[in-house]
């Protein structure tokens, strides 16, 4: 690890046509090594060779962190063959927000390189540490107030470690600016002369509670934390840590929403300690008030300890003063951020498929879309297929009707890995869709109307009332496809009826797999019926085929049965198809070999037996004399 300290240029800087006048901080790094991922670790998290350069720098005047970084100059040279342009990167952590980081890289492009240079101002976004699936999301967020006299830790790292034994790239002449805005005046200032008592957890009888403090002169929004200007803490019980003394803060307009912070982060015993001035503290517990706090509303303070070191008061405090940081109104939702601003994809028909490409989803969020479709009536063979494609993200989809009822959702489609597929209708869906298997029916059907889709990443939970929560990572490059047969005269014709398996009981919980092949001219449709009863309903989709079709049913101990049907384009009932039993060895004929097979397996119990389960011809659960009788009754029969 390489650690250095640099003096930073601070001031008010403006670039005509690029930025309005704003507070900014410029960082210069004369030389740097980019060895591996953050912490000089390999992609798998093990220690890597080489060493990431780490520098520290102090902040002069405080400012609010923006969304971008302005790279003024950089010369980057490839050391490890195979390194990509977008991998040399910077991690930023401020000691006012310990453990929280944000990141940027110098250039985009999944291409190998020899060297590249940035010679004029280039704006880069603050964001995730890498585009790879194992990358870290930013935790030091836009709008964080970077306090004066705080210190940045700046790590030069690689978004992907191409050489586990050494450095991946080197940089010289690196200079970048963090544009920001001056911190706004505080929302309110709390002054408590004290002394006050810190006893135990919130609600403890030994805690001091002070109410009705600092009425707001004007309505406003609560910010990301507080700035402690002063606080003198005195330990009462030996063993209490200075990090345990905390404040629970509530606004009178939102009496159930509590925000908490600690005066100090030092986990050590103490006698007397003074904190402040200008010590920034983020909320430990965020009360989640998203609305505006009205003018005249007041503050209630409870002084508490995060750990109760004993009976009575753990510590006392006096000369307490802290500023509550002002927040900004929540940004208006952008297109697709919630159902109210869902992106309208239009009406899907057989001749008008819908799609959205390159969808980006923020961590813990969804992108919302809506579309209109006519009645999807499975009885007429209609289908509606919805699926994600192209992305490497682990996607999830939730589908809602226009009133917010959850219709269906999908995580991992079995035919398509980590991508998602929703099928509505009795037909097997779009042959161009990834979840299509030509066989499996889906019993859903929907009325004509407008439907909403929430596209997100694993792990997401969809519920009624447009309910959605997620702990999923950010996802990028997601394609959404919506296709239907509606508008083409239905999804096809269906052959209905019954399949009867002769001489069976199905008393043992066993099943039999019966395959079918439908041949229509040059086309062939294959499928499987899993039978768990002597009579099974048929519902075979033949699309828009016409003319003569030949259907062949085969499987298990049953002789092949062939049925011919004249297709007219309309659904029809073909009655009951009977399949004869007795072919224990599946040879295509019931003969003496089948009697020998039953005798060889005589006494075996299924499921769980040893040998040939097809010898249990009647599916009674046991190979017995009834199965020999079955062979004799069907002796001489053979496949159609």
Indicate the proportion of strand residues.
over 45%
Going by helix content, strand content and strand pairing, the class is mainly beta
Q: How large is the count of helical segments?
A: 2
Q: Low-confidence stretches at least 5 residues in length (pLDDT < 50)?
A: 1-22
User: What shape does the CA trace take?
Assistant: elongated
Q: Approximately how much helix is present in the residues?
A: under 10%
Number of strands: 41
Largest sheet: 8 strands, antiparallel
User: Compute the gyration radius: what is it?
Assistant: 35 Å
Describe the protein in words.
Helices cover 3% and strands 45% of the residues. Mean pLDDT is 85; it is low at 1-22. The protein is mostly beta strands. The longest helix has 9 residues, at 592-600.
Quick take:
This protein has 640 residues and is mostly beta strands.
Write the SSE topology.
Blueprint: E1 2-5, E2 9-15, E3 19-34, E4 53-58, E5 63-65, E6 68-78, E7 88-94, E8 102-105, E9 115-118, E10 122-125, E11 145-146, E12 151-158, E13 169-181, E14 188-192, E15 196-198, E16 209-213, E17 222-235, E18 245-251, E19 254-262, E20 272-275, E21 279-282, E22 299-305, E23 315-326, E24 343-347, E25 354-361, E26 367-373, E27 383-389, E28 395-401, E29 406-410, E30 421-425, E31 449-457, E32 460-463, E33 467-470, E34 475-484, E35 494-501, E36 512-520, E37 523-531, E38 535-541, E39 547-555, E40 558-567, E41 572-579, H1 592-600, H2 625-633
Parallel strand pairs: 1-4, 24-26, 35-41
Antiparallel strand pairs: 2-3, 3-13, 4-12, 5-11, 5-13, 6-9, 6-10, 6-13, 7-8, 7-12, 14-23, 15-23, 16-22, 17-20, 17-21, 17-23, 18-19, 18-22, 25-34, 26-31, 27-30, 27-34, 28-29, 28-31, 32-33, 35-38, 36-37, 36-39, 39-40
Helix pairs in contact: 1-2
């Amino acid at each position: 690890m390489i650690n250095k300290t640099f003096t930073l240029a601070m001031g008010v800087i403006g670039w005509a046509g690029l930025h309005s006048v704003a507070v900014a901080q410029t960082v210069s790094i004369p030389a740097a090594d980019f060895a591996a991922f953050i912490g000089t670790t390999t992609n798998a998290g093990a220690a890597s060779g080489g060493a990431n350069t780490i520098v520290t720098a102090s902040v002069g005047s405080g400012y609010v962190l923006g969304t971008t970084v302005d790279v003024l100059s950089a010369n980057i040279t490839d050391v490890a063959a195979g390194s990509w342009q977008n991998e040399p990167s910077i991690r930023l952590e401020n000691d006012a927000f310990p453990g929280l980081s944000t990141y940027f890289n110098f250039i985009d492009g999944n291409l190998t390189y020899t060297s590249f240079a940035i010679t004029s101002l280039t704006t880069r976004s603050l964001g995730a540490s890498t585009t790879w699936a194992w990358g870290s999301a930013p935790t030091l967020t836009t709008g964080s107030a970077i306090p004066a006299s705080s210190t940045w830790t700046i790590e030069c790292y690689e978004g992907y470690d191409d050489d586990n034994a050494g450095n991946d790239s080197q940089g010289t002449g690196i200079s970048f600016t963090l544009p920001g805005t001056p911190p706004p005046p505080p929302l309110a200032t709390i002054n408590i002369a004290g002394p006050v008592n810190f006893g135990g957890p919130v609600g403890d009888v030994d805690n001091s509670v002070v109410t009705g403090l600092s009425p707001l002169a004007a309505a406003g929004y609560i910010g990301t934390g507080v700035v402690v200007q002063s606080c003198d803490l005195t330990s009462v019980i030996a063993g209490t840590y200075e990090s345990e003394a905390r404040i629970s803060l509530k606004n009178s307009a939102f009496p159930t929403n509590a925000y908490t912070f600690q005066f100090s982060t030092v986990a050590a015993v103490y006698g007397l300690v003074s904190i402040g001035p200008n010590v920034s503290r983020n909320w430990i517990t965020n009360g989640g008030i998203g609305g505006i706090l009205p003018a005249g509303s007041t503050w209630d303070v409870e002084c508490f300890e995060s750990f109760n070191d004993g009976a009575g008061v753990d510590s006392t405090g006096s000369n307490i003063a802290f500023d509550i940081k002002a927040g900004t109104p929540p940004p208006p939702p952008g297109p697709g951020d919630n159902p109210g601003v869902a992106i309208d994809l239009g009406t899907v028909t057989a001749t008008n498929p819908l799609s959205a490409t390159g969808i980006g989803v923020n961590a813990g969020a969804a992108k919302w879309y809506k579309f209109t479709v006519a009645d999807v009536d499975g009885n007429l063979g209609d289908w509606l297929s919805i699926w994600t494609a192209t992305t490497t993200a682990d996607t999830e989809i939730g589908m809602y009707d226009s009133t917010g009822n959850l219709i269906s959702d999908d995580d991992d489609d079995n035919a398509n890995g980590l991508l998602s597929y929703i099928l509505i209708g009795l037909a097997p869906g779009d042959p161009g869709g990834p979840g299509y298997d030509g066989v499996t029916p889906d019993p859903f059907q929907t009325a004509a109307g407008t439907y909403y889709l929430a596209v997100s990443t694993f792990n997401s939970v969809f519920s009624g009332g447009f309910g959605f929560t997620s702990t999923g990572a950010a996802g990028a490059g997601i394609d959404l496809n919506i296709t239907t047969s509606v508008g083409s005269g239905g999804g096809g014709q269906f052959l209905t009826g019954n399949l009867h398996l002769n001489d069976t009981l199905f008393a043992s919980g066993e099943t039999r797999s019966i395959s079918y092949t439908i041949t229509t001219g040059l086309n062939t449709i294959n499928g499987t019926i899993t039978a768990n009863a002597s009579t099974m309903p048929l519902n075979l989709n033949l699309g828009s085929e016409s003319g003569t079709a030949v259907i062949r049913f085969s499987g298990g101990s049953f002789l092949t049965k062939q049925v011919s049907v004249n297709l007219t384009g309309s659904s029809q009932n073909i009655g009951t198809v009977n399949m004869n039993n007795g072919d224990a060895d599946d040879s295509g004929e019931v003969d003496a070999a089948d009697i020998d097979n039953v005798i060889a397996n005589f006494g075996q119990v299924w499921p769980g037996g040893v040998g040939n389960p097809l010898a249990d011809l009647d599916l009674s659960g046991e190979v017995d004399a009834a199965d020999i009788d079955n062979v004799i009754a069907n002796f001489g029969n053979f496949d159609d």
